[in-house]
Amino acid sequence: ASESSEATANCYHGIGHGAFHFYGSKATLSGTALTAQSLEECAKISDTPLELDYCAGGVFADAFIHSQMNDYGLSFNKKDPFALCREQSEQYKWICYYSAKPVLLTLGDGDFPKAASFVNDINEDAYAVAVIESLATSVTMRNIENAVSIVDYAKDISVCRGLQERLRLPCMQGLAIELLTHSSAHDALQFCNLSVLVAQERD
After folding, report:
1. Which has the higher per-residue pLDDT, 134 or 200?
2. Contacts with 11 (C-beta within 8 Å, 6 or more apart), sequence order
3. What is the distance in angstroms between the CA of the first residue and the CA of the last residue of the chain?
4. Above 70 in pLDDT, residue 27?
5. What is the mean pLDDT of residues 32-42?
6. Which DSSP string corresponds to 71-140?
7. DSSP of 14-53, one letter per residue?
8. Cβ atoms within 10 Å, residue 107
9. Confidence label for 1 from pLDDT (cuts 50, 70 and 90)
10. Comparing C-alpha atoms, which of 82, 19, 86, 27 is closest to residue 56?
11. Strand residues in 141-185 grouped as ranges (E)
12. What number is the average pLDDT over the span 150-168?
């Protein structure tokens, strides 16, 4: 991604965070009303669907994080981690699911296979794919921060292979995309050339 597009994404995402905290500071707004008002603000300032996704992603990221703390009148049901997303209108559902990785990592105690297992219960393929791809990007980001060697991604690839068939390739794509975005093209290419990958996975 270009520096310009990344700056745009960060800007709108930050506005989403800001809207959530601004309205969260109002005593009259809490729970789902807080999320709804924040999303309304995103809709006002966004000129394109992509900008709206960036902004709404900031809102949902905060909503998921603070629901685990029981802040702002939000609560979190461990048996139904995606309840918030099902409540949203269609235009917000995809980005809500994509933003759910903080919840999954908490439920999975930071363990990739355990966190990924929750995705199996999502019936809609598009939303399940969104969640697993997002979760995989967070795994790669953690690997980058911990200076994990590309060859050691084999264990993460193994986790992806153990998922439902509809989730396997999106999971691997998530691992690779984050390398390209936040590491280097060289690392992404090295990942794609790992001997443990079969032709279909490389493509």
Report:
1. 134
2. 54
3. 20
4. no
5. 93
6. -TT----TT-TTHHHHTS-HHHHHHHHHTTHHHHHHHTTT-HHHHHHGGGG---HHHHHHHHHHHHHHHH
7. HHHHHHHHHHHTSTT--HHHHHHHHHHHHHHH-SSHHHHH
8. 18
9. very low
10. 19
11. none
12. 95
Retrieve residue 41's tokens.
Answer: 């603000």
What are the Cα distances from residue 62, in Å, to 10, 66, 71? 15, 6, 10
- C-alpha distance from residue 131 to each of 2, 20, 96, 170, 185 (Å): 24, 22, 9, 9, 24
Residues 113, 167: Cα–Cα separation, whole Å: 13
| CB-based contact 60:99 (threshold 8 Å) | yes
> Under a CB-based contact definition with an 8 Å cutoff, are residues 124 and 162 in contact?
no
The tokens describing 171, both together, are: 């999971």
Cα gap 192→118, rounded to integer Å? 27
Q: Which two tokens stand for residue 148?
A: 């994990």
Q: Could you tell me which residues come within 8 angstroms of residue 132 by beta carbon, excluding any fewer than 6 positions away?
A: 116, 119, 163, 167, 170, 171, 174
Specify which of 26-30, 156-160, 181-185 reaches the highest per-range mean pLDDT.
156-160
Q: Which residue type sits at 75? A: S
Does position 24 have pLDDT exceeding 90, yes or no? no
* Residue in the block written with tokens 């598009």: 126
Please tell me the total number of residues recorded for the chain in this structure: 203
pLDDT over 70 (residue 74): yes
pTM as predicted: 0.90
Question: Average pLDDT of 10-27?
Answer: 90
